[in-house]
Structures
1.
Amino acid sequence: MKTSRKKTSPAPEVSTAVPSWSDANQRHLLAALAPIRAALIKHSGAPAEKNFSAEELNHELTAAEKNLPAPSALQRLCAGFKLSPFERDVLLLCAGCELDATFSKLCAFAHGDDRRAFPSFGLTLAALPGAHWSALSPGAPLRNWRLLDVAPGENLTSSALRLDERVLHFLAGVVAPDARLRGLLESIPIPDELPPSHRELARQLATLWRNALNSRPFPAVQLTGHDVPSAAALAAAAASALDLRLHLLRAADLPTAATEREIFARLLEREAVLGRFALLIELDPGASPETIHAAASLLDLTQSPVLLCGAEPLRLRTRLLARIDVPVPAPLEQRQLWREALGTSAATALNGQVDLVSTQFQLSPAAIRTAGTDVARRHRENNFTAHDTTLWDACRSQTRPKLDGLARRIETLATWDDLVLPTAPRQTLRTIAAHVRQRALVYEQWGFAARSDRGLGIGALFAGGSGTGKTMAAEVLANELRLDLYRIDLSALVSKYIGETEKNLRLVFDAAEAGGAILLFDEADAIFGRRSEVRDSHDRYANIEVGYLLQRVETYRGLVILTTNQPQSLDAAFSRRIRFTIQFPFPDATQRAEIWRRVFPAATPTEGLQVEKLARLNLAGGHIRNLALNAAFLAADAHEPVRMKHLLAAAQTEFAKLEKTLSTAETAGWI
């Protein structure tokens, strides 16, 4: 007889998978709400389908806590805002009314009024264990951080309590930044890599914050420098080391009213705890005093990790302010960044140009990556030669945006052939070009900069009457050196308000540093005239502004050209601190004839021009060019080549404009 064996199914596999944080957080929140529901039932005497013992409720809560792969939202919120057990329970009661309809019914039953289906402080004081009146105070966490709102009512204890929507979403595990801050905060990504010098600064910042983790408030930090993307990348790396995300807020978006700013600060700080982020406030160059004050006040009002990026020095009333300078990467670091951005093929094809641009331009890592990627693309498409200027021009384009908003860029088309000058000033101009071109070699590699940083700026004074070629000479230098030329209108920078002129000048020089652009200050005697005796505070500050400009001329890494029609009116201290002075003489007849020979482009049709007769006109080169251009328009309108009759008509117009008399001796035999 055969015995049949019963088939047995294999034992079910026991899942060892770690639950998701979202599921575990949900379970923990429900387990935390259960004792609050039980306390409401007990206080109100409401009927319950099933009563759980305190031991059962605690066991479920403990099991839910053990099941968490990371702290729950409730745990983070209680730790972040230092809530007492009673404050925690008040928060849970308000959350329960939003998440479970039975909580609202129990509140109405406890109040004895179906219309009052909401929690109140009176109810929480009576129903929840460990109640303390201080939880109701405006300075306590629940109200200070606006975790809940108190509805208007006859008295505080009977007024309705409502959980803030942002806090409710947070407890439920939903990522939903506060709607009032949406659009104002910009998330800054963690950089893939930082230059070694910036990596060290990020480490220092992270250490500074880490040391303050258990001793709030955090020290506020000002990142000084002019490159916001580099400062933001550095700060994002430091925040990441503390498991924080970095968000950027522009100071211009801050409320200027004190009351609104205090509310805004509370919202920001609450969001910093809920969203685990650090805040970087960007203070634009040239920010108004109101904006600067708003930024400083916000730093005073907050205790969380907050930084400010801007060159304007700040003073805080109540909070420690640490300053970290974020310099542009040194040339050696820039070379490495360029090679990484360009790739081996393009960097090799450029044959030494990487070293050249690393010494001339001071670009941020972000700017180098942008320009390098673009140049590498062009190399793949066009396979440029080593003599191509693509890389140099890409660097120039990266440095222009900041300065374009502060000064007027001049398109430099003039060459040495267009410049008619005596031998001595012409040779001095070539010497200036050599100083600018070899600046890095002499200062850095040959060691002159290591001895002293004074007098390293290249300043030149161009003195001469109107139209004698001062601006054209600046154009020739810029064209020769392939640098941008910016005309600075001093009359627009000089302000009647104390300190504003210095601030305006600082903006110009700081913006120009990255590319070493040539700065042309017209009519320097407007600010560099002989300094006055100090009669009042305005005289004293005016002298300070002159001193500041002289100091920046001496230390600027590019070329500064100042023009004047009255060199005799300049302060002697100014003349001593300018490396080159060139006199632009009024052209004599021979020089005027040479200007006339060169004034018309090769494509301009001319007929019967008599240069020697034209040279009788007692005009400087600038006025000669105006006259020639006017004559060209007259000839073009008559469908004729430029003739002496057109020049005569143009000369009459030019002399009338100058309020000078055009004599018959000067124009005899023209037509």
2.
Amino acid sequence: MTRFTLLVLCCSQLLSTSLSAASPTAGKTLQSTVRAGTQNVQHEPPELTGRPQAAPPPPGPALRQFAQSKVIRAADPENPKTLRPAIAELTDLIRQEPHNSDFYFLRASLACYARADHVNVLNDLAQSISLRGPRRNGDETLKERYALRAKVEFDNHRYDDAMRDLDTAIKQDYDSAQQIFNDGGTKPSTIAKPCVWTLADLDTLAERYPTDYRPPLYRGLYLSYFLAFDLESDYTPLIDAFERAATLNPASPLPHFFSGELYTIGRLGGVMSTANAKCLDYVVPRTPACLALDEARRTGIRSLTRAIALDPTFMHAYAIRANALYDLKEYQQAVRDYDEVLKLAPEGDTVRSIYNDRGLAKMALGHYHSAILDFSRSIALGCSELCQSYENRADAYLKLHNYTMAIADIGRSIELVLPSALYMMNIEQFRRIYPEYDAVPDDVLCEKLRRLFYHALSYTSFANEFLIKAKEYSSTVLPDFFVKRGDAYMALHQAAKANAEYDRVSRAFPEWAAVVFTQKNGSRVRKPE
């Protein structure tokens, strides 16, 4: 699957939910009955008492046309006959919506594969980048725009411009810089191809600029992307490439940074590495496999330290080193590095996640009050489904025996994971979790949940999943929250509420119930932690 195909699929999927929400649905006739149908529910769980989310504005005609376009969806870079009609339709979409950055980018991508005039392709990419504006945190496609522009420039022998744009692409997000070489494949390519970077292109740059450190740096990033698909990969060429770059430019922190990243969060010491798979972090005393993992992380830390010595303002190096130090249980040093990141980081998701991570390090040090302050700062900056700051703050409150505050945060944590959980469970399992709604009709309950968590979906779309297609949902996260909330109620000597939480687990998640409960004299007993 090519990078262009992936991009079209991604854009289409993002728009499809908006389109369904804009369609006439049976849900509109239910909205007035939800309040009446649930008004007799006693003691609603807090995670289900929120205000319904406002529906997003419907997409304009151009976006609707794009999402429904069979011509654009059928465009295949390897089949030139499919490109011309897709380019024509994108041109029409640009006339309708001339400020849509994605339309220019998609047209440039197709035109590149169609071997169109490179000047027009570069103009489209320049317009796309300009309309994208300043880089937003997590904006993956701005990086892709620069990478494609660099390749078009390279193919037209504008090598200095190409490297300049590759450098800019890398700077968009150092933590995932290797993604600029993502062509939709899983193996390195040694044959030159249009519109995507290959090893042949990087060899050309190395021959033309033998004393420039950037071609071997690019080569290392290229290999780090593709070698990740093969667990048995030989990483020696990759490491050699970064070492070559460091030799050619001893003043640049980048070769040391990317080498350090490889050993700490990458394939030689990160979560997805074979070294990590052989060792659990909490194993004490350390086994030979765990000692090998620790040494890999220390190797990465040494490289990151070199990068920081060369550039004391390199925020990303501090952040990755902090996480590696945390993994090595060197919590005080991790807090020191998190402090540096907070001094250097712009506002946004980076700051939010760093507050959360610093809070975890403080938790490990037993500084629970200070950790709560950090988790609270993280939450204040915006906490969505993937944010664990409510859960972490609940754990800190539990350590301080502040069970009331812990219960409130556990409820918020449940609320954050419910959207993904509900979409994979059926209504029977939901009713086993929440018997409070036994008297509520299926359609009314379905509409209540849609309005709470799936405002971008039509009633028909959500009901098709929740009432018809969905099966049993297996999870450890959701039942663990219920157990933890039950434990907090038990600590407050509220046994009825505690048992209500435990019942949710026993009824709906029997496999997890077997882990946390045992039977004694015919009664359910909570196993000790």
3.
Amino acid sequence: MQKLPPLSAEQIGIFLEATLEAEFSFLRLDDLIADIAPLPRAQQDYLLDWIKRISTTNIEIAYQFAGRAVSLLDKLDRRVLETWALTAMDTYDRTGLRDALLVIRNVEQFVHSSEIRTAGTVFEDVSGILLTFVHGLSGRKLKLEQADAPFTDSETLFLPAVISWMSTVEDNFSLAKAMVAFQWAQTRFGSFRADLHEALADYPDQTHALNCFFALETLRLEACLARELPGLTRDMLRLKQQSGSAALTPVWQAFEIRLAHPDTSVETSLACVAEAYPHPAPQPVCYQGELRPDIVAGVLAARLEREKMLLRVKLSELVDDLHKQQDETEKKPPVFNLKPPEEGNTPQIDQFEITLNDMPIAPPDDVRQLITSIKLDLGDIPPEYLTPAGDGEYDPRLYQDEARDPDDVWQGTYHEDGAFLYPEWDCGRKHYRKNWCVLREKDVRPAEPGYVKDVLARYGGLVKHLRKTFEAMRDENRMEKRQVQGDEVDIDALVEALADARDGSEMSDRLFTRMHRSERNIAVMFMIDMSGSTKGWINDAEREALVLLAEALEVLGDRYAIYGFSGITRKRCEIFRIKRFDEPYTPEVKARIAGITPQEYTRMGVAIRHLSKLLMEVEARTKLLITLSDGKPDDYFDVYRGQYGIEDTRQSLIEARRAGIHPFCITIDREAKAYLPHMYGAANYIEIDDVKKLPLKAADIYRKLTT
């Protein structure tokens, strides 16, 4: 391939003047042009490309980057250079121009931290994976956050921003996982059931006593993890060896043997402190982290008070529900008891049976979770915790979630609290803007309940036709080819088998076809455009189509959800709940469909990301995301209008496909061919202008995507 000649100073000047808007920004470009001109063409192209990317975010940052980057092209790895540029742009998004320019100017400090990050595990990159891992373990549902050191307060697991103590990325990730597992073990196996201040108060050197206790607990918890998670324990042992942990002295080896017994508890560790105190504590192991008893004590006290109140209130509600089903003569004073299950080995902490007046009951999940959490803290449930709360014993404001109107929240200074934050693809930057969009879910306000009945009366013949069509889809058989036995010969398979036999290969015995009725396992999310441009006949068409589709889908039996979307600017993106997946098609849902009204603008990328997330939480073999919209992405006085919004929407659809979701768009925009093929693909959208055609087309889409 022929190498291109370097760009001339004149060519570079023309590019920089246009990219950095020199006519309006008054930036001096002569020195920069003189620095870039002698570079090889590959370096020129690389540098100018990044200047253009950064300029879409801020021209001053791009200019400062160019001035510094020229001298670094031969000194730094390209990945470090690119991370430096992206960090500056992300900083600009979060805290503004001043801090972004500090990132550019302090390039030496950034390079030093980047060298650490190259082999290190970054909290932002792995927190989602580690949180999923933690949620798969028994016990209470824990949170994961960033802090200055690894420790836990018994509700949240904390990790540092970067873990770089090991030499490779893989080992540093394993270390982060080990830290999380060790902190979980502290909450799961009762490390915080003792009052350490009281237990260690008589020791002259309380810091040394606490270190001895933590070392003893570490030995006990390692044994617990070896029984619970043997595979991870092998990795933890390897990490200890690689980090150079010193071998235990004979005294501590004896403690290790004693604390390995399954019947040990935190009391066993405390009992060993007196013997261990005269000896130096072992060096902390790499995943041990810190023990912060003051923080734990505060969190624990608040949680016990809150959960005692909640459990007693929930038990009172259970009694009330039961009494509604009984005659007055059958009502007895409620007595709750807890006992382990009758069968099996030693029960887990979340395995127990609840009885009310000696009769077993099936408690709701929230009651079971409360009992599990209290058992983790206390080891058992005190009798007073199982006494239902009396009328008026607790102020309802202490245990009832205060409903806040999202419209009121948007007005506040801290309107991002409790909202969902999503990234957005910046096509100029060719990178995501992190936590760029602020999204809240809202309920559609129900409208006239008779609306659905009127639509069904108006389209009675079409409804009958749709029901028959969807019934046929539900009952249709599918032909399975290349079967060992069946009703007909599979001609294609037979031809291939005969060809194999002539070549001397083994002949396949899968030579038949058969008809098979397979169970449908489909979840479909309808994403409805509620932007202001749908006002009028488009909004009427959307609502009528949803009524007809819902009636047909009820016959088919597939799981489906309906959500609307709109918003104004990236700071106020809204999703409107119309029907959830687990919600039946009730009169309330019908009233919400009637209540679909035009709102603001069409920021589609964030809506697709949020609804894809909801769709991924549903267990289904086939997952569809069907968008019903009247036009292309748009927002108020925003760069989102135009190519930026189209590319962000396209990227969100790529993310959905990677997650196994099949997106499809039904549009009422006559100009859709100009942008939808690029966003959805040529075969994944349809243009329609008649509501009567929409449900019929949806049936065709279903057949195409699910067969």
